[in-house]
Amino acid sequence: MQDLRKMLDMQRALDLKALAATCPLTAGDYKTARYALPVADGAVSLELVAPQGTGHVDAGNEDVFLFVLDGQFSINGTGMTEGQGSKVSAGTAFDWSATPGTRLFAMEVTEAEKGEPGVVVIDPAAVMSPSNPPPAEYLTGPKPECQSAPAWRSCKGQFYGGTWSATPYYRKKVPYVHDEFMYLLEGCVSFVNEEGEKQTFKAGDAFLICRGASCSWESLEMVKKVYVIFRPTEP
Questions:
Q1: Are 149 and 160 in contact (CB under 8 A)?
Q2: Cα–Cα dist 203/92, whole Å
Q3: Cα gap 38→111, rounded to integer Å
Q4: Which InterPro entries does the entry link to (predicted)?
């Protein structure tokens, strides 16, 4: 088993399923059965959650993205299974239930301008439209053709998610100015960080790249992913 300290290094991609299987995380109540992941500051909360049983959560002031890494998790009677994710909007109270062995990834951002409460599901089959490719100065080789289907944008535009796809491309090492969760629906992608470490992820993998990490991107085939991003606005 990999060393947990290395797995939590913010300069590399954090393999969320591997972390959920390795970190000291005891199943229990949704609000307390948690393991905090490293963050650049207090503007976002990134946690692994091991809910089991049933419970209730009062309405809060945060937008929370929940993704099922393993097991089954239900919000107000609507179930999510492995590979599914939803955003619970600020102001939403909910009842929950979880089967034994359920593991979630949770990404939480305070919402100062509350909208309508409710749950926004990221649909992997949503119809996508053309979107901008990475900046030309970051690319080595042909410009990819990209498509996306945004699901939401909240917290003054800082917190957003949806689905995205791209034809093969290579992007130079660039520093991430955002925290990004990714779940690969199709394809395979490799990252190389400043230390020269190469990490490769394939369809079915869920991982996180934190603000401040610098890495390249290489995909040799069409890639499609679920993404959720927290990009803080500059003061």
A1: no
A2: 32
A3: 21
A4: RmlC-like_jellyroll, RmlC_Cupin_sf, UGlyAH_Cupin_dom
| 17 SS3 class | helix
CATH architecture of 4-121: Sandwich (2.60)
Q: Torsion angle, CA of 220/223/228/232, rounded to 10 degrees? A: 40
Closest CA to 13 of 209, 182, 219, 227: 209
SS3 at position 4: helix
The Cα 149–Cα 48 span in angstroms is 26
pLDDT at 2: 64
Please check whether the two domains, 4-121 and 129-230, share a CATH topology: yes
What homologous superfamily does CATH list for 129-230? Answer: Jelly Rolls (2.60.120.10)
The CB-side HSE value for 207 (13 A sphere, CA atoms) comes to 25
Output the six-digit token pair for 135: 């900046």
DSSP conformation letters of 112-173: SS----SEEE--TT---EEEPPSPGGGBSSSPPPEEEEEEEEETTTTEEEEEEEE-SEEEEE
Every domain of the chain and the residues it spans: 4-121, 129-230
Q: What is the pLDDT of residues 94-106, one digit of tens each?
A: 999 999 999 999 9
- Whole-angstrom CA distances from 111 to 108, 115, 168 are 9, 9, 36
Of 216, 178, 206, nearest to 66 by C-alpha is 206
